[in-house]
Amino acid sequence: YLGNGGNLKLARNIFNWLLEQDEILKLDTAKANDIRLEIGTTGLALMAWIYMLVLPLLLLLSGIVIWYRRRQR
Hints:
Order of helices and strands: HH
Number of helices: 2
Helix content: 55-70%
Radius of gyration: 26 Å
Structural class: mainly alpha
């Protein structure tokens, strides 16, 4: 699996560290291509409704259904 991703670089850095050759260590930082998320006002309002109202109501409803089914046993 050394050819996958940065595994070869990681293995080299580990061996250099174990050999106490810390000055050889190379750490490459990768930059993300998409770092901005643009959401319009409609999308933001929809997310607010879902997380503030719909999701809590679904959790409450599922709790009531589970309680009711357990009570019927």
